[in-house]
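Appendix B. Worked example

We walk through a single record from start to finish. Start with the input: the chain for Prohibitin, Blastocystis sp. subtype 1, length 302.
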Amino acid sequence: MSKAVNVVGKVLKWSVGCGLVGWLGYESLYNSKLLFFDSGHRGVIYNRIGGIKNKVIPEGTHFLIPWFERVNKYDIRTQPRTMTSLTGTRDLQMVNISLRVLCHPNIDILPQTYKELGLNWNERVMPSIVNEVLKQVVAQFNASALLTQREQVSRLIQRNLIERGREFGIIIDDVAIIDLAFGREFTNAVEAKQVAQQEAERAKYVVEQAKQDKKSTIIRAEGEATSARLIGEAMENNPGFIELRRINTAKDIAATIARSNNRVYLTSDSLLLNIMSDSGATERMSQEKKEAVKEQPEKSMW
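Next comes the structure step. The output line below is what the pipeline stores for this chain.
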């Protein structure tokens, strides 16, 4: 009797084992899943027996055992993210800085990233480390330096973000400062400073222009004095100089009238041709003096 019971128990065990194996085989053959990963995506497989596999599923088609395995897809393409943080500068000015970050997860450690952060790694990590780095870097600069040294500030933020992101399995591709907004008081102070600088530059230009005008006037006066001195010397040394100037002036007047569309008849007086040379004028003046002396009556000795 006991032997019969043992035989029946063994038969039941083998039946259950064979049924389970058959069911698993059926599920594997007929109800198995085929997964397809698009370009730019990777997968992490969770196994009900072994847990997370330390293997990253690449692009393409893959076989997945139903119920025992579950896949978690990751988008490994570069993802843009814009974050804004209100922080203080070294000179205690508040600035609202907006930062655009391009990042993606590290493919080599995706299983570890899934264990620690899950699928929404971007939401869990990026806001905290970006705010931390921004406050750390901005506190090293004055408010005016954030404007004049913007490129240097951006490079320093990127370097610190790369180091912090590496600790969480995140690769930072690029960082850019897209906006800097200061308080109203600081903005008004900057505008007033710019206006004052422009006024100072304008006043400097006016002073420089006055100096140049003064120099120009002095040079012009010196030139006119030199010209007058040279003309006087020429008239003294060469009596024909006045005659030459008379002829040149007459030529200029005649040329100007010739270009006119009207017909004009001028006398020699209008052309300055009646101007006498120095020798003629001197002779005439001496002759007039002699005639004036002859016309005066002799005074009586008595």
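Two observations about the output. The helical segments are 2-30, 110-116, 121-138, 143-148, 150-167, 184-237, 240-258, 278-295. Residues 162 and 177 are 15 Å apart (CA to CA).
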